[in-house]
Structure formats: C-alpha cells, structure tokens
Amino acid sequence: MEGNIQQAHLFIGVATLLVFVVRGIMMLAGSNAVNSRGMLAIAAVFTILLFASGVFMGFGAKLSFTDGFMLSKIIGLLLFVAFGVIALKQGLSKPIASVLWLIALGAFVYTYLIGAKLLAPLF
C-alpha cells in the first residue's frame, strides 16, 4: 500500500508541475486563460492532492509536522503555492511575474529533492 501511495504522490507531483509549467507558458504568452475557472480548479485540485498524499505518507511513516523532513517539504510546498499564485495573477509585469514564477519552480524542485532524499532538510 505504501508503494502505491508513493507512486500516486509522484504522479500527482508530475501533474502539478506540468499544470504549473503550462500556466507559466500561458502567462508569458499573455493568455487570459491562465486564470480561467477551469485552469484554477485543475491547479487547486492537484496541489491539494499533492499536499494530502504527502501528509498521508508522512503519517504512515509516523512522522510529525515538527519532523525536519516533513517541515521542509511543507514549507517548500507553501512557498511554491505562494510564489506561484502571485506570479500567475494578472496585472504584474512579465519580468516580475517571470522571476516569481521561477522562484516558485525552484521551491517545487527544492521540495522534490528533499522528498527524493537528494538534499538534506533545512530543519
């Protein structure tokens, strides 16, 4: 069962990243569809599923929210969401939105590297 949850979590992570990259490309192209109800709903569902499956795996491994591994992953995901939401809002200049989008992407990669145990947690 644990292996299935890990595979699902990985798939959801890839899907979340794909949606984020597609929305970023749409933002750079000036498309209004980046903030359409459908795109926002898809992004929200994948992000919630990513967080929920990660927390579920953490509790299955008997980790608490104060564990450095879990805390680093949660902070990384929150940074990804926060910078991503700001970057993809309408009204920002493309250079500022691009920098924020890249910071969000970096937060996602950071979270992945911690989850894959390729990087030590900061806490």
First-to-last CA distance: 28 Å
- Tally of individual domains: 1
- What's the order of the H and E elements? HHHH
Q: Tell me, what's the shape?
A: globular
As residue ranges, the low-confidence spans are none
Strand content: under 5%
Major pleated sheet: none
The average pLDDT value, as a whole number, equals: 92
Number of strands: 0
Radius of gyration: 15 Å
Helical fraction equals over 70%
Number of helices: 4
Structural class: mainly alpha
Would you mind describing this structure in some detail?
This protein is mainly alpha-helical and about 120 residues long. The protein has one domain (about 1-115). Helix content is about 75%, strand content about 0%. The chain has 4 helices and no strands. α1 (about 1-30) packs antiparallel against α2, α1 (about 1-30) runs antiparallel to α4 (about 95-115) and α2 runs antiparallel to α3 (about 70-85).
Can you give me a brief rundown of this structure?
This protein has 123 residues and is mainly α. It has helices at residues 2-29, 37-60, 68-87, 94-115.
Characteristics:
4 helices, mainly alpha, 123 residues, 76% helix
Sequence-ordered SSE layout with sheet pairings:
Elements: H1 2-29, H2 37-60, H3 68-87, H4 94-115
Helix pairs in contact: 1-2, 1-4, 2-3, 3-4
